[in-house]
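[job 0417] fold request received: Macrolide ABC transporter ATP-binding protein/permease
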Amino acid sequence: MITIRNIKKCYKLNRENIEVLKGVSLHLQKGQLIFLLGESGCGKSTLLNIIGGLDYADDGEYTFNSINVREFNEKEWARLRREKIGFVFQSFNLIPHLSALENVEMSMILLGLSKEERKRRAIELLNTVGLGDKLDYLPNQLSGGQKQRVAIARALANDPDIILADEPTGALDSENSMHIMEILKRISQQGKIVLVVTHSQELTSYADRVIRMRDGEIIEDEHALVTEEIGDVYEDSVASKGKKLDLLTTLKLSFRNIKNKKWRNILTAIGASIGIFGLSIIMALGNGVKDKLSSSIDEATAKSSLSVANEQFAVLNENDIARLGEIKGVRDIYPYNPFQISIKTKEGNKATSSAESLAPRKYAEIIYGKKYIVTGKFPNDQRDEIVIPERIAKKLFKDSAEAIGKNVSLVVQLMSLKEIYPTVNVHATVVGVVKNNSIPLLDTVGISYGLSQKIMKESIGNSTSALSFTIIPSSINDIDLLKSKIKQMGYKVQTDEESQNEINEYISLASIALGMLSGISLIVSSIMIGIVLYVSVLERTREIGILKALGAFRSDIRRIFVTEGMLIGIIGGAFGVLGSIAVGKAANYMIITFMKKSSLDIFQFSFVQTVLLIIFSGLLGILASFVPANKAAKQPAVEALRHE
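[job 0417] inference complete; emitting structure tokens
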């Protein structure tokens, strides 16, 4: 069945080669309970590990059912272990966060048995070892003897040809030791090789054969009568593909570990959520601003007029009006000027706001819409009149209705990117109150056409000058032709829709810039996830060894830790987007409550963006887990099992 010839093994210790096995030869047959006896350090555990493929010989031959396995690679050994070899360890080596039933099922999962089949067989095996009433118990809820019986049931799960037991009674009392040996004896009588490594002489009466070792050599081999071998010959099942850990099991193992270290992982996820929180808030703010601009531009009939300015943002004058007025297709031209304004009532109440010159009254309803005025009317072009937003009306007066007809003092300054202009003091009458969320006068004071000219006269000495002009075309169909002609004359020209698009571009650039700052948090959180997983690898080194002993591939181990990183990332992403939604909704509520803007949702969250952010966070978790996952996958099984 198993034959090893002249097996040698050396270890390096302080640059010195220590010879552990000195040309060991051995033949093992089915139907035997074999004791490998010797003092600590004689090489018996090393020999057992080589037979089980957990360690590798430096020299010699090893055949398993006439197949040379000496040159097997790690993956081929993993397949052989999962199909033909079962392990029982002194320290039991059960996975602590899995129940007795799940521990027994694990090797069958690797073999690819169906859920129903592996559960049926696991229950049957646990009943066989007397633990049918402990199926859902975790290892820390079992006694030492019960743990070892679970380990034996796990070793038998895939119906292996050989059971390798390393000091199976070393951690048990005499009563439990005898019970374990009786179970192992029955297993050998069912036609399996059971090789027990021990230094105890007391239980040798159970053995069919006792092999004694000293200083890396076999010094005695007491043979009992050997019956004819039982069972089928191993038909190169190593060539079979086997199964990788399925997604559900991988998720279960990863989630169980996250749950076991829940506070550490929750804190890590919270740290990981900071960057996602920042990105989510920035995107929601961008969505809200763009939406408000878009809806308001629609109300202002985005394509019905053109805005014309100097390429250098200099003041335009009557010469520019004359040149533009000569273009065929121009129906009318009127100035547009932005201002900063301070308003003071007779009672001494004050408010500051941005302000804009209004279109002539004949175009007002076309440009601003009929619903622009909430209370009152549009200003008369020839009078010193203004309209104010609801927010300012309630700040200066008790309500909107009371504001109508009130005289106020104004301090006005023309706003320009190129120059700073002097302030102008004027008086005006409030004739209308406008909606807070109307654009182009969103939260701006509207100054009558005539009053605007008066302010420009005092500010720059020319009433017809302006920072830009609005052109009303004879026909909307002339828009593109007019734009082309005006551009040829050296002016900057845009429709309101194009102005909105330009603003949206600036908003997008600002969002990207802020997003890059959040990206620093994402990098830090990714490093944090990597560190936590690295610590997890160190803590679970023995579990890694157990899985490899059961036949797990490197890819299986890697997938467990990558999945764990992904889950932490997803949880962090969920924390981030939920936190941002809570903060955004609270901010919207405060804006509505304190600024009296019933429909001004500045933070608008997109379901698609939210899902994509969580997915992105999961991907960051995967990237962060690569280094610790690869470290886990490359752990030598024999060293991992020795880890304390």
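[job 0417] notes: The longest helix spans residues 496-539. Residues 224-241, 298-302 have pLDDT under 50 and may be disordered.
[job 0417] exit 0
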